[in-house]
Amino acid sequence: MQRLKLFALLSVTCLLFACSKGPEKQFQLATQGLLSGDLSQNAELAVIGSVHHGGSLWDLKRNERLFAWNHAAGELSSIRAAAISGDGKSAVTTVEDSMVLWSTESGKSKQFWQAPSRIISITLNKNGSKALMGLRDGSVSYFDMNKGFSIHNFKHQAEVRITGLSEDGLTGITGSDDKTAKIWDLKKGALVYSMALTNQIKNIAISASGKLAFTTAQREDSIIWDTTTGETKFSLPNRYTNYTASTFSEDETYLSLGTFQGKIKRWNIKSGTETASWQASPRKAYGGAASKAIISIADLQNEIVVLTSDGLTQTFKP
Fold first, then answer.
1. Digit-coded pLDDT (tens) for 160-192
2. Residue 54: which residues within 8 A CB-CB, separation 6 or more?
3. CATH number of 106's domain
4. Residues forming a β-bridge with 297
C-alpha cells in the first residue's frame, strides 16, 4: 500500500511539475568541484579550473585527463576563467590578471600575457588568435593573443562578468554589473547596441551569425533579442530562475539553458516554445559536492552535454 501511495504521489508530482529526464551518462573530472570550466563546441574537450587540483584539459571521448595546466611550476593554480577556441586547438586559462594560451594538441603553453586588471571572463575566437576579455575594472579588451596587445578597448561602468563571440569573431557581447549587455563591432571597434536592464546581468549568449543575443538578469524576464535593433524575439517569463549557462545551436534553431539548480531546458527560437528539459544529477546528495549548477553547455543537436560545478560532465538525449 505504501508503494502504491508513493507511486501515485510521484505521478501527480510529474503531472504538475513536468518531470525532467536525467543524464544518459556522466563522468567525474574533479573531486571537490570547479572554479571554472568550458566545453569545446563539439563537446570532445573540457578545460577546467579545479578547486584543489589546479587547471587541466580532458578528453571527453576517452574520459581521460590529457594535461595538467598551471601558471607556475610546482603550484596548483586557482583558474578563475577558462575558454576553448572554436576549432578546439587552443585554450586559455587565467589567474587574477595573468593568462596563458595553451595548445590542446601538445599541451604546451604558447603565450603568456598580463592584463591591466583582474580577468573576470574570457572568450576565444575560432582559431584562438583573439580573445574578448571582461575585466574587474569595467574594461573590455579585444586582445591579440599572438602579439600581446589590445586591438580595441571598450568600457562598462562596473566589472564585466560575461563575454561572448560570434562564429566569425567579429561581433562580441559583454554583460556587466552596470546592468547592461553590449554588442560590439570588433572589426571597427564600435558599439553596435546597448541593452539596459534593471538588475545585474547573470548570463548572456550570442548566436553563430551574431544576429541574436540572449540575456538574463535576476528577477527579470530572460529575453532573446536582435543585436542590431534590440527588438525582443521572445521572452521567458520566469523571473526566479537563475540561468548560469546558455548556448545557441549552430543553426540557430535552439537555445539551450542551464540553471543554478542543474535544470537544462531547450527552447525552439522560432516558435518560442520549450521543446525539452532535463535534470542534472549531483555527485553527492548533500555537502560541498551536492552543487550541480551548470557552468558550460554544448548543444550537439542529437544530445546536450553540460559541465557542472561539482566537477561532472553529463550527457542528455532529446
1. 999 999 999 999 999 999 999 999 999 999 999
2. 68, 69, 70, 75, 76, 77, 78, 79
3. 2.130.10.10
4. 306
